[in-house]
Amino acid sequence: MKHESLSYLPKENQGPWKTYLEQVERVTPHLGKLAYWVETLKRPKRILIVDVPIRMDDGTVAHFEGYRVHHNTSRGPAKGGIRYHPAVTLSEVMALAAWMTIKNAAVGLPYGGGKGGIRVDPAKLSVAELERLTRRYTSEIGVLIGPQRDVPAPDVGTNQQVMAWMMDTFSMNVGSTVPGVVTGKPIPLGGSLGRRDATGNGVFFVTAAAAKKIGLDLEGSRVIIQGFGNVGNAAARAFHDHGSLVVGIADVTGAIYNEKGIDPYDLTAYVAEAGGVRGYPKAEPVPAQEFFSLPADIAIPAALEGVITEQNAWKIKAKMVVEAANGPTTPAADDILSERGILVVPDVIANAGGVIVSYFEWVQDFNSYFWTEEEVNDNLRRVITEAFEAAWQKAAERKVTLRTGAYVVAATRVLEARALRGLYP
Ligand code: NAD
Fold this sequence. Notes:
- About 40% of the residues lie in helices and about 15% in strands.
- It has about 425 residues and is an alpha/beta fold.
- Among the domains are: about 45-175, 3-Layer(aba) Sandwich (Rossmann fold); about 200-350, 3-Layer(aba) Sandwich (Rossmann fold).
- The chain has a seven-stranded mixed beta sheet. Strands 1-2-4-3-5 form a five-stranded mixed beta sheet.
- A hairpin with a 2-residue loop joins strand 7 and strand 8 (about 255).
- It is globular.
- The two termini are about 20 Å apart.
- Nicotinamide-adenine-dinucleotide binds near residues 154, 227, 230, 326 and 351.
């Protein structure tokens, strides 16, 4: 059957969405009869584009463009973060929403996939402006979100405070306190212990499982991490705490390297003062474009998508790329890495720690009964390691990459749900 293309999507700037569609193409031959439903994966269920006008501190009114996309809700409410970044586009949010569908299914969470964002540089706003932006955006997407419908969380450029404002705005609009409408909240508002570092810790747990498969000892192994935000920082601490050497770190201000290892706690204190890793006195500056060719055993992109491409995939020295960011590797780079025998642990498993503990937070909010940090971390380790093993087994069975293995597991779950539910009406 011939299918209509998505007329609302601009022809240019489709990068991450194109990457996602290619990933779906790669999994389709492995879906058997479920391939009948595969078109479902290639189009978002619904898209909301909102104008977000706010009064700036100088009295002028500024308008920002915001989005909330539900990619798929066959298996449960939409779930996925909110991004504040100057490069946010509709096609990027669509891809990020779709990766959430795959991720939630790959790790067995009862969620669909969603994502939202505003094209804005949050660093250029005052705290008061950021709060007004968040509250207006939350009101605008209020028709979509809710604890049973769509549950946002932090992503690039948003944090616990932004989630607190979202929860408060939603609660004020419905007239009662609704902690389960967002996850990644501060602890006093129904947040979960262990959520802040969950994505970074999950990256570590998955890397440990993958390292075992390729006979790499994490103790003393050299790690480079691009991104020193929520995810990169927590991952750096987890590796450092378990005896690995974090030899290279990059953020938007620059890249640094020290073959003897960088102490992420010391660097965090420096970044709090200096605003970025550039100029850190206990490491050498290195050119940002050479970052992924630094000598290391494990390379971890933990910033933005599309950073490992055919230009730099040839130069990667690491034995393993662990995708802490969403969509950091283009399909062409994927092929090069696979040809070179470099293991890529895909984002949909590697960075799922955040949404796994978000799920625990949501469950705790419904029950109004809160777990210890140990319970959270034990369950995180179990769920993410099991998901890794399932993807690993599937990849071996089908003789495909770990990414395609994870997609086979996930797409099968999503499309089984689709087939069982049938088409409405
Ligand atoms: P963040 O805003 O806290 O940090 C982003 C980091 O990336 C910052 O250190 C920033 O300086 C750096 N960065 C930005 N542009 C860069 C560039 N051009 N070169 C080098 N570094 C650059 O965001 P985050 O929450 O840590 O998210 C990072 C990635 O992890 C994103 O892909 C996000 O989608 C993904 N992710 C986040 C979570 C979560 O729980 N926060 C969960 C799953 C996946």
